[in-house]
Design goal:
This protein is of the alpha/beta class. It has a single domain, classed as 5-stranded Propeller (L-arginine/glycine Amidinotransferase, Chain A). Helix content is 21%, strand content 24%. It contains six helices and 15 strands. It is globular. The two termini are 12 Å apart.
């Protein structure tokens, strides 16, 4: 298996019906969303990622947010059990794809709930957001799956946004970045860097110091550039209307170090 794969799933015709929890619903241009998704996929490919399409989930409006279907750590995949009942049909096809890649696969079982957007990896530390779509039993099952592989699992509260990674992500050096009004406990993270825009909280590590980011966070991008990183900006405005961000549009698999 090549060292860098990104699982993606194209947006379906019902995208505009996606679940909105912390935002007021606004119209979504589905045709524009598809073009933006294609631009996102192209950016991954341009920076050395092989993209693997999970079969469409056209009956599931939120299916494009494929990151929520699983958590990957060191060659093992834990298939999620979404806290939002309408999203549970999204997982079987995603599970089949990672199994086909030769990864070890486990599945969250009832009564546990866990969504991949609630899980942030920073080195060997795995932060898990609780209080929304992921419950304590989901965290327990994640510990059971990944602690034997060397993970240190830390549960943190999430009440102000949909998922933990709606509030924070991490730079290559492990510094956690977030927009302070949306972060419940910045002190949960040993190194926390505040950023001025909500979407500036969301980075995908492309490798070689390159950060995939939303075009809606130019000031945050400037901060990261001054730190020596190279922001790669993509327009995902239609997904942002549905509480989506750059992280949730793919599952990144970095070989055994994922």
């Amino acid at each position: 298996m090549p060292s860098r794969k990104a699982l993606v799933r194209r947006p379906g015709p019902r995208l505009a019906e996606g679940i909105v929890t912390h935002l007021e619903r606004s119209p979504v241009d589905v045709a524009l969303a598809l073009r933006q998704w294609e631009g996102y996929v192209a950016a991954l490919r341009a920076h050395g990622w092989e993209t693997v399409e999970v079969p469409p989930a056209d009956a599931c409006p939120d299916g494009v947010f494929v990151e929520d279907t699983m958590v990957v750590f060191r060659g093992a995949a834990l298939i999620a059990r979404p806290g939002a009942l309408p999203r549970r049909p999204e997982t079987p096809a995603a599970e089949a794809v990672v199994a086909g890649l030769g990864m070890s696969v486990r599945t969250v079982r009832a009564p546990g709930t866990l969504e991949g957007g609630d899980v942030l990896k920073a080195g060997d530390t795995v932060y898990v957001g609780t209080g929304g779509r992921t419950n304590a039993e989901g965290v327990r099952q994640l510990r059971a799956a990944f602690e034997p592989l060397g993970a240190r699992v830390v549960a943190v509260p999430v009440t102000k946004v949909l998922h933990l990674k709606s509030a924070v992500t991490a730079l290559p050096d492990g510094t956690v970045v977030g927009h302070p009004p949306l972060v419940d406990t910045p002190g949960s993270f040993p190194r926390f860097l505040p950023v001025p825009e909500e979407s500036g909280s969301h980075v995908v590590l492309l490798g070689d110091g390159k950060l995939l980011m939303a075009a809606s966070a130019p000031r945050s991008a400037g901060i990261f550039a001054a730190m020596g990183y190279t922001p790669v900006l993509v327009d995902i405005s239609e997904f942002e209307r549905l509480e989506g961000c750059v992280t949730c549009l793919s599952v990144r698999v970095r070989g055994l170090d994922a």
